[in-house]
Amino acid sequence: MNRQKIISAYENVRPDDEAKMRMLENILSAPSEIPPAGKDDTMKHKKMRPAVLVAMIAIIAAMTVTAFAAEDISGWFKQYFARNSEDGLTPGQIEYLEENEQIIDESQSHNGYDLKLKSVLSDGYTVYATVGLTAPEDVTSEDLSKLWGSAIDFYDENKKTCSSWMMDVCDDKDGLENTADLVFEITPAEWNSGTILTIRINALEKMFYDAEYEQELLETKYAGQDNIMFTDEESARIHQKIMMAEGPWEFTVDLSTVETQVLELITKPVTVQTSYGFKEDGTDLYEEVTVTSLILSPLSATIQTDADYAPDFTTGDRKVYVVMTDGSCVELIPNWGGGGKQYFNVEAPIILEDVDYLLLADGAKFMAP
What we know:
By secondary structure, the protein is an alpha+beta fold. Helices cover about 25% and strands about 35% of the residues. The protein has nine helices and 18 strands. The chain has helices at about 5-10, 15-30, 50-65, 65-70, 75-85, 90-100, 140-145, 210-220, 230-240, and strands at about 100-110, 115-120, 125-135, 145-150, 150-155, 165-170, 180-185, 195-210, 240-255, 265, 270-280, 285-295, 300-305, 320-325, 330-340, 340-345, 355-360, 365. Strands 10, 11, 12, 13, 14, 15, 16, 17 and 18 form a nine-stranded antiparallel sheet that branches. Helix 2 runs antiparallel to helix 3 (about 50-65). It starts with a helix and ends with a strand.
């Protein structure tokens, strides 16, 4: 029985009051081996008596199926964003991730490489997709850490491609050298609910960086030169793409059930300071621009200005934060931009109803309506 069938069976379990009491009596009558309060760090090393284990499984299956599914299947994005967030996830962020993650669990194999699309998370603007990779046994974690995304495409049902995305190679915590989780962060801002997303991995390639050859060129052919431009052949040797396996692996995700949520923080144009270049000494050049729109979604943010370039709000130590009503913060990570617009990703989900204000590095605050 596969995982989805187990969950479906659990959802139909409806114990009567007498059965619940019997399960509770089994728990209370069994000798406890749970350590005292304050010893939580040792609990994972303790073994539970069979009577307690059976009774607790029955109760969990009958009464807390959602919790079981979240831990066993839907826990990945909680781990991923908790790793990114310095303060950990709030209960609201955890609830958002549990409610909005789509479990896919679809596998394809080519040339000894098994790829499984595990789950997808989307707010209608940004899409996260987790793909589990199992390589042949002679492939190492170092090989996987050098995976390169030049042979990967994302597009919608109209074959409109997305050129703005990132890939994060993550340890899947199974202790094996030849496995990893690939997290794709896809930010096609023009997408919204109702879009069909296709993930097509044409090949798995790794990048080898030949630092010795690059240094040799700098010390000989290009010695003493500024603004060096390597030839195509030199660049190809410095950064060598090595084929690991040809595909394709192709997955399709229906995003029609995604609920798009946005929060506009601008009620009238506001003038702020932004960086647009560097002086000869390397320090930043700043100028004032007018912010005309500032839109937040749970997984992204967009700042629109009257500039004719992508304004830089995060030069050097400058950062942008969304501050919540409880005082916690979510850092915005710059992604890409152009035409006066800057897109951001988030270190953790933004719970829109809990937003207090957005804070720029120059001290400008944009209050939630």
